[in-house]
Amino acid sequence: MELLRPFTPGAFRYGLASWTWLGIHGKTPRFASLFGDVFLESLEGWWFLDTVEGTLELRWPTAVELTAELESPDGRTDILLEDLVIEAARHGVIPQHDEVLTFMPHPRLGGRFSADSVVPVRFELALRLAGEVHRQARPEPSPLLLGHSLAGRHAHS
Predict the structure, then answer these.
(1) Which residue from 53, 64, 36 is spatially nearest to 122, judged by alpha carbons?
(2) Which of 102, 136, 129, 130 is nearest to 117 (CA)?
(3) 50 within domain boundaries
(4) Out of the domains of life, which is the source (predicted)?
(5) Per-residue pLDDT for 142 more than 80?
(6) Buried b vs exposed e over 4-26: b needs ≥16 C-beta within 10 Å?
(7) Are the beta carbons of 134 and 108 closer than 8 angstroms?
């Protein structure tokens, strides 16, 4: 089974709409893993959007380095989650061409990171829902951390 999948620009656009808070502008989605993690290209290099962790990382300067890591045993295990894909397939969980595997419930919401929790979901829906889960689970920024002063908010006697 292929561990990487291409999707239409429309599918990427819909799915990534819930990830704008992470700074995806200026990056072009090229393909996704079977778990819906997205590989994006920019002038700086190749980015990895990890939908389980909710992170975006500039990881590879060139496509050659990206390919080398994804073809390595560590890349297949750590990035593409090949072991979980194989185990899910043994349980009969095989995504259709427009689907990816996702954890239900999402690990961010207390779900387990195991093949027993894996279900196939249409790619754009899985990506959109994961983005919403992470966006809503983020702590609200503190005014103190943003450089705002609380002075003047209290009435003086």
Answers:
(1) 36
(2) 102
(3) yes
(4) Bacteria
(5) no
(6) ebebeeebbebbbebbeebebee
(7) yes
- Residue 156 pLDDT exceeds 60: no
Residue 20 to residue 33: CA distance in whole angstroms = 20
State the Cα–Cα distance between residues 101 and 81, nearest whole angstrom. 11
User: Measuring CA to CA, how many Å separate 38 from each of 48, 70, 87, 102, 146?
Assistant: 6, 13, 22, 13, 30
Domain assignment of residue 119, yes or no: yes
What residue numbers bound the domain in which 43 lies? Answer: 4-137
Q: How confident is the model at residue 112 (pLDDT cuts 50, 70, 90)?
A: confident
- The reply to whether 72 falls in a domain is yes
Query: Rounded CA gap, 47 and 11, in Å?
Result: 18
Q: Which of 10-24, 108-122, 128-142 has the lowest mean pLDDT?
A: 128-142
Is 147 inside any structural domain?
A: no
pLDDT digits (tens, 9 = 90+) for 62-102: 999 999 999 999 999 999 999 999 999 999 999 999 999 99
Number of domains forming the structure of the chain = 1
145 pLDDT band, cuts 50/70/90, is: low
